[in-house]
Amino acid sequence: MVGERRPVVLRNGTVLTMDGQKRVLTGHDVLVVDDRIAAIGPLLQVPEGTEEIDATDGIVMPGMIDTHRHMWQTAMRGYGADWTLTQYFVWYYLEWGKVFRPEDIHAGNLLGAAEALDAGVTTTVDWSHGLQTTDHADAAVDALQAVPGRFVLAYGNIQDSPASWTAKPEFRDFVSRRITGDDMLGFQLAFDVTGDPAFPEKPAFEVARELGVPVTTHAGVWGATNDDGIRLMHDNGFMTPQSIYVHAATLSADSYHRIAATGGSISVSTESEQSAGQGYPPTWAIRAHGIPVSLSMDTSVWWSGDLFSAMRSTLGADRAREHMAAHARNDTVTHSSLRAEHVVEWATVGGAKALGRDDLGSIEIGKKADIVLLRNENSPVMFPVLNPYGHVAFQAQRSDVDTVVVDGRIVKRDHRLVGVDLKAIRGQVEQTVEHLRAQLGEEAWEKGMNPDIPTTKVLDNPYTYTEYRGDTRTSV
Ligand SMILES: [Zn+2]
Q1: Which residues belong to CATH 3.20.20.140 in the chain?
Q2: CB neighbours (10 Å) of residue 454?
Q3: Structure confidence by residue, pLDDT tens digits, 171-182
Q4: 89 C-alpha vs ligand 1 centroid, how far in Å?
């Protein structure tokens, strides 16, 4: 699906550079040659044959970066809209995650990848914890490579312990076959740390260290992962600047200090934390500790893979808490601490930094050409643009994404995806849904949207490889 690149110029837009000075340039052009940003300025001279895109009245911004999304779940879009985290654990971890075949992972990833590009998310971390076999992993990568976006495969397997799946020869074989240093496909290991004092996850961290790849982990998830896991990681030297802590919503100051001191970052999924129940969206706390932030959408089984929603809900959650805290002191907030420009920064350069990609996340000469144009002549919401950061965070939506460029290639133009066969993806997704419905049976399928919690299983912590249960309930 990857075609030849020709130079592209976006003309006369308002450019949110997200560079070190956070320059906002009005009436500027951005020229892309090959995979890089070649020039930024008014009325640029461009090479012959350059594709011209009118950005007048539009906002040109870096492609957005989502640092945590379970793309394999996208074929179940919206199914769990009313779930709690416990119901999610029961459905995926304990009951039905195991019925997903490689082709189902493939279908979900294709749809998730298309969804990301359509929304202007040019880099997505596929937190792929349904990889029961390396056939599933091959299917995941096949899908990511069939869609012209930038992805990071975060390899995981909730059906097995991290120590077990990372030790398998076929896992090593997969890594050597498929993870080749391709700029369009990064790699992480994805698993959680239960806090069991025996530290059963230790061998998996050792594999990550040996492979030289980052670990991403759901940390600070009410009832499932807590300060015990952070302490174990810290005491064993596994907290690094590359570590990504997802949610980090139910942690004490001690854990935030450890994250800050070791240079890691936190992936905040505000919509997820608000409605699933990992803890209050933590930006208010992690801002105070100076920890770098990126944003994520978690899973389309509840929410859409759209970072406009992430920016908006993150501003809302942070400001709501600030107001409530002030009111509790019989005080009032006169100036919001969290600004629109902060969430735009987290959605772009924040994600790039979390992934160790200095070449992504901003519009600067020499950087990779991952660019989004927000423009919609048919929308009453796209004018006037008076406060560009505020416009991105609170006004714009997925349908305003006119053009998306990834690695110098146009992947969305005039509001339509290019080089993505949605009809074919729809066919695969239909087959997956059909398979899942058949596996569950109609009754379980209907009930699954609001599943009962089996009395023989639990409850908060869904990991079956350890009997350990943390003390979150009493310690918080
Ligand atoms: Zn997650």
Answers
A1: 64-359
A2: 11
A3: 999 999 999 999
A4: 11
